[in-house]
Design brief:
The longest helix has 22 residues, at about 70-90. The strands form two sheets. A seven-stranded mixed sheet has the order 4-3-2-5-6-9-7, sandwiched between helices. Strands 1-8 form a two-stranded parallel sheet. Helix 10 runs parallel beside helix 12. The protein contains 20 helices and nine strands. The chain has helices spanning about 10-15, 20-30, 35-50, 55-60, 65-70, 70-90, 95-110, 115-130, 150-160, 165-175, 180-195, 200-210, 230-245, 290-300, 315-330, 365-375, 405-415, 420-425, 435-445, 450; strands spanning about 230, 245-250, 265-270, 285, 305-310, 335-340, 380, 385, 390-395. The protein has two domains: about 10-210, no CATH class; about 230-450, Rossmann fold, CATH 3.40.50. It is α/β, with parallel strands linked by helices. The structure holds S-adenosylmethionine. S-adenosylmethionine binds near residues 257, 269, 312 and 313.
C-alpha cells in the first residue's frame, strides 16, 4: 500500500509533478506566481523541458537572490529534468521499461516524502502525449490515493478554465479513481474546448470512460424525460425502405443500432464505436472522427450515389454544422440528410457540458441555422422519440454553401445558452400516429427517387 497522505501539493507543484510544462509556464507568466521562490524553480524546470534555454538564462540571472536560498531545491529540480529528458529519448526509441524507470527517477530525485504511483503514471503518460506517442494502458494499481489531486486540479481549472490539458488530466484522474461519469463529462468538455475537433487520440482515451460509465446522476428531477410518438429507428427504417438508397452514410455509430438498418452499401463513421455484434457484409465501419473521414474520403464519396445520410455524431453545434456542410458537399439532388437530436426535452439535455444520460447538446442550433440561412432547403422536422429528427432535401450538391459563413455562424451562437421554446415544444414538427407520420413523410420525401 502506498503511503502518501502527508504529501500536500499546491496546484503548481501538481502541474510540475504531472509534467505539464506549457501550462506551468503559462500560469507563472500570466499570474505573478514566479516571484515565490519554490515556484520559480518549477518554472525554470518547465522552461528547460520546453527548450527555452535563452529564457532560462535570463531568468536565472534576474532572480539570483531568490534562487540562492533554494540552491538545493533548484539542483534537485534540474536533476529531475535531466532524468525526464532521458526518459523522453528512451520513449522515442521504444525502450518503454527503461523510459518508465527514468521517468520515475525524475520524481524520486526531488526528495519528496513519497510520490504516489498515480502521479508517476500521469507524468509518464503526459510526456508520451507531448511527444505525440499514443496513449498506453495506465497504471492499474491501488486506487486508494489520498493525494489531493482533484482539488489541486479543480483550483487550477478555476484559474485557467480554457486549458485543455488540465481537463484531460482531470478526466484521466477521474477514470483512474473509478469516477467514470465525471471522467466522461470532462472528455465531453475537452471536445467543447476544441471547437475545430477533438483528435482521435483523445477519443481513444475517452472510450474507456464511455464504456465503463453506468449512468449520470441527473441533477434535476425529470431531466431524463423524453417524448415523441414514433421511434426514431422506425422512421429510419421507413426512410431506407421508401427511398431505397444506393449508398448510406452514417456519422456516429456507437452500438450500430441505426447502421444495421441499412440494406444497401453503407459506411458508418465513429472514432470510438462500441459494437454489440458483427456488422453485415454491406457495411463498412471506419474508426475515425467525421472531420478526418470527410477530409480523406470526400473524393471517393462523390463518386457514389450517397442518397441517405444520418448525422448523429458529436452533439455540439460546431461539430454538427461541419458534419452538415461536409455531408451536403457529397450529396446529390436526391439525397436526404437526417439529423438526430434537434429537440431537447428540457434545457438540461441541451447543455453543452453534458450532465444527463439523454443528451442532445446544442444540436437544436443547426435547425435554427438552416431555417435562417438556408431557406432554399426542404426542412421537415419530426416529433420522433426520443429527441426529434430533422429530414432535409433539396440539397445543393457539390457546393459548400455554408462553408464561407461557418466561423460567423459559430460565433453568433457561441453564447446562446437558452433553448427557444419552439424547440422545446417541437413547434411545426410532424406528429401523430406512426401511419400519419409515414403518410406525411411519403408526401414530402417518398417519391424523390422515382421522380428523378
Ligand atoms: C448517439 S451515438 C450514435 C448512435 C447511433 N447512431 C444509433 O442511433 O444507434 C453518438 C456517437 O457519435 C460518436 N462521435 C462522437 N464524436 C464524433 C465525431 N467527431 N465523429 C463521428 N462520430 C462521433 C460517438 O463515439 C458515439 O458513438
Amino acid at each position: 500500500m502506498e503511503r502518501h497522505s502527508n504529501l500536500k501539493l499546491d496546484p503548481l507543484a501538481m502541474l510540475y509533478l504531472a509534467g505539464q510544462w506549457r501550462e506551468l509556464v503559462n500560469l507563472t507568466s500570466d499570474i505573478n506566481f514566479k516571484d515565490s521562490d519554490g515556484n520559480h524553480c518549477y518554472r525554470i524546470a518547465a522552461l528547460m523541458q520546453l527548450g527555452k534555454y535563452k529564457k532560462v538564462k535570463n531568468e536565472l540571472r534576474s532572480s539570483k537572490c531568490i534562487l540562492q536560498g533554494n540552491r538545493n531545491r533548484l539542483l534537485r529540480v534540474l536533476a529531475s529534468g535531466v532524468f525526464c529528458s532521458i526518459s523522453k529519448s528512451l520513449m522515442t526509441l521504444q525502450y518503454m521499461s527503461e523510459a518508465r524507470r527514468s521517468c520515475d527517477r525524475s520524481l524520486d530525485v526531488l526528495g519528496l516524502p513519497t510520490v504516489p504511483d498515480l502521479v508517476k503514471e500521469l507524468r509518464f503518460q503526459e510526456q508520451r502525449r507531448q511527444l505525440g506517442l499514443p496513449h498506453i494502458e495506465m497504471y492499474s494499481g491501488s486506487r486508494d490515493c489520498k493525494l489531493d489531486i482533484s482539488s489541486s486540479l479543480a483550483k487550477l481549472r478555476k484559474l485557467r478554465p480554457d486549458l485543455v490539458s488540465l481537463v484531460v488530466a482531470s478526466a484521466e484522474y477521474n477514470y483512474e479513481i473509478g469516477n467514470y461519469s465525471e471522467s466522461l463529462k470532462e472528455w465531453q468538455e475537452v471536445a467543447a474546448l476544441m471547437p475545430d475537433g477533438m483528435p482521435s487520440e483523445y477519443y481513444a482515451r475517452s472510450k474507456k470512460a464511455y464504456v465503463a460509465n453506468k449512468g449520470f446522476s441527473s441533477y434535476r428531477k425529470n431531466s431524463e424525460l423524453t417524448k415523441g410518438d414514433v421511434d426514431k429507428y422506425a422512421i429510419l427504417e421507413w426512410l431506407h425502405t421508401s427511398l431505397n438508397p444506393s449508398f448510406y452514410l452514417e456519422i456516429g455509430v456507437q452500438r450500430g443500432k441505426s447502421l444495421e438498418i441499412a440494406r444497401c452499401e453503407a459506411v458508418g463513421v465513429d472514432p470510438m464505436p462500441i459494437l454489440d455484434k458483427a456488422l453485415s457484409g454491406n457495411v463498412t465501419l471506419i474508426e475515425s472522427t467525421s472531420d478526418a473521414f470527410f477530409e480523406s474520403h470526400a473524393y471517393e464519396l462523390k463518386e457514389k450515389d450517397v442518397d441517405l445520410i444520418f448525422i448523429d455524431g458529436m452533439h455540439l453545434f460546431e461539430y454538427v454544422l461541419r458534419d452538415f456542410i461536409n455531408a451536403e458537399s457529397v450529396s446529390n439532388e436526391n439525397t436526404v440528410i437526417v439529423i438526430d437530436d434537434i429537440f431537447p426535452c428540457n434545457s438540461d439535455q441541451a447543455a453543452r457540458a453534458r450532465a444527463t444520460k439523454v443528451w442532445t447538446g446544442d444540436v437544436w442550433k443547426i435547425y435554427d441555422t438552416l431555417k435562417r440561412y438556408r431557406k432554399d432547403l426542404n426542412l421537415v422536422a419530426v416529433d420522433a422519440y426520443p429527441t426529434g429528427l430533422l429530414c432535409i432535401s433539396g440539397l445543393k450538391c457539390n457546393e459548400y454553401n455554408l462553408k464561407s459563413s461557418y466561423e460567423s455562424i459559430v460565433s453568433e451562437y457561441k453564447d446562446v445558452d437558452s433553448v427557444p421554446k419552439e424547440y422545446l415544444e417541437r413547434a411545426g414538427a410532424i406528429t401523430g400516429r406512426e401511419s400519419d407520420v409515414f403518410k406525411e413523410l411519403a408526401r414530402l420525401f417518398g417519391k424523390l427517387k422515382t421522380n428523378s
